[in-house]
Amino acid sequence: MIELIMKDLPRVTVIGLGYVGFPLACAIAKSNNYEVYGLDIDEKRVDKINMHLSPVEDRQAEEDIKTAIIHATTEENVLKNSKFIIVCVPTPINEERKPDLSPVILAAEKIARNLRKGHIIILESTVNPGVCEEIVLPILESGGLKGGVDFELVHCPERIDPGSPKWNVYNIDRNIGGLTRQGTNIAADFYRSFLNANINEMSSLKVAEATKIVENVFRDVNIAYVNELAQSFDKLGIDVHEVIRGASNKPFAFMPHYPGCGVGGHCIAVDPYYLIDYAEKNGFNHQLLKVARNINNSMPHYTVRKLVDGLKILGIDIKGAKVGLLGLSYKAHVGDMRESPALEIKKELLELGADVLCCDPYCNGHAPALIGDILENCVGVILATNHKQFVDVRNWKNVKIVVDGRNCLDMQNIESQGIVYNGIGRGFPKTLNKEIVNEV
Question: Quick one: which of 1, 185, 222, 387 has the fewest CB in 10 Å?
Fold first, then answer.
């Protein structure tokens, strides 16, 4: 049996206090079963947490931190006396869209410098199968201690749904797999002590690692499918949304996904590359995953072309035209801009010479324009994020064309004002001549 480090209240240290680590640390602290520390390299974030303020947008965590006791610090020596060490650092991709595991490696090196017998190391960061055993474990064992004998290594991939009023860190089921069965059992019981969700014990580290990748790849592939349908149906004059609604009434074997101006966030737009890269290194080519990524990555350009072509038909050149961009975040009602397709849309519009006004009430400082200014001064508007503030707009004033990148606006209302409405996969705009549209 692995020797327990503390006889009193066990210490838990969460490495990485962002969108994943901070809500998790709050949940653990709220259980009152542990002494909770948070380790982060961002001093401003640490100071904020120590003042009982949330450094991230998360309704549940913002409420929890008011009473939760978390000792946030930048000093790694807090790891020495921790029974559980949970790694919640980012796993991004680089400019070549290759996995960047440097945050995980740096966290593992910090743990290795402070590793003691009895430690339970849990990685929550999303990684491809093999990372725990092939990258993290050798670093941890570099000081002479043996995994599965002196300490345990476990993977419990994070699951969050930013901005969701229903799903939070407490109620989403989790999967756990460890280097040993004992480690899996210990970690599973640990999570059961502060979560209200089901904790599913997997057979191995690799299986647990694969679950998160598969979840997000599933969504990416299905979104790519409907994005390709949208492009096809735009040519065919078919409303893809109406088709999806009709297909959805089948009570089995169909799950609706919807097209849009692109896929963003730190999971769906990133995780497939981890599996693609790891499979290639082991002799397999994920053709479907690559095609799906290419389709979804093409949607910001497709959205911009809808605006450019629509303006051209109206006799307006995109160069020098005032264009409004509604939304910079990747998802409604959050300020997270990671991998947001809106950023690609903005970049392309600027490259084409448009005068771009950006509005996003959730992205402080990044999109300062007021929606009223956009409606008064812009000839074209692209909606990239379906914030309620945009969906509720009724009077589009001086706008000539609206490209609805999320298919969330009231098409009839917009067209009744003599404005061109152009959605993603909604067929050709009724306010434009079909023959002209097909020529563009």
Answer: 1
Q: Which of 132, 261, 267, 359 is catalytic?
A: 267
Q: How far apart are CA 281 and CA 82, in angstroms?
A: 36
| Residues 336/330, Cβ–Cβ less than 8 Å | yes
Going through 149-296 in order, the beta strands assigned E by DSSP cover: 152-155, 174-178, 199-201
182 in any annotated domain? yes
Q: Note the pTM of the prediction, 2 decimals.
A: 0.91
Residue 373 placed within a domain: yes
Q: Domain for residue 217, yes or no?
A: no
Taking CA atoms, 6 is separated from 11, 76, 118, 193, in Å, by 8, 18, 9, 17
Smallest CA-to-CA distance from 79 within 120, 41, 114, 109 is with 114
* 47 plus 189 within the same structural domain: yes
Is 267 a known active-site residue?
yes
Q: Which of 153, 178, 203 is the last residue of a domain?
A: 203
Q: In what order do the strands lie in the sheet with 380-383?
A: 355-359, 322-326, 380-383, 401-404, 420-423
The DSSP element (H or E) to which 383 belongs, if any, is: strand 380-383
Tens of pLDDT, residues 224-247: 999 999 999 999 999 999 999 999
Instruction: Give the model confidence (pLDDT) of 264-317 as tens digits.
Output: 998 999 999 999 999 999 999 999 999 999 999 999 999 999 999 999 999 999
Q: Write out the residue range of the structural domain in which residue 57 sits.
A: 11-203
What's the burial of 433, exposed, middle or buried (CB within 10 Å: 0-12/13-18/19+)?
A: exposed
Residues 197 and 52 in one domain: yes
Strands 120-123 and 84-87: parallel
Q: Is beta strand 420-423 parallel, antiparallel or unpaired with respect to 152-155?
A: unpaired
CATH number at residue 19: 3.40.50.720
Question: Using CA atoms, how far apart are residues 275 and 16, in angstroms rounded to an integer?
Answer: 23
Paired with 324 in beta bridges are: 357, 381
Alpha-helix runs per DSSP H in 52-101 = 59-64
Q: Is residue 169 part of a domain?
A: yes
Question: Do 320 and 312 contact (CB within 8 A), yes or no?
Answer: no
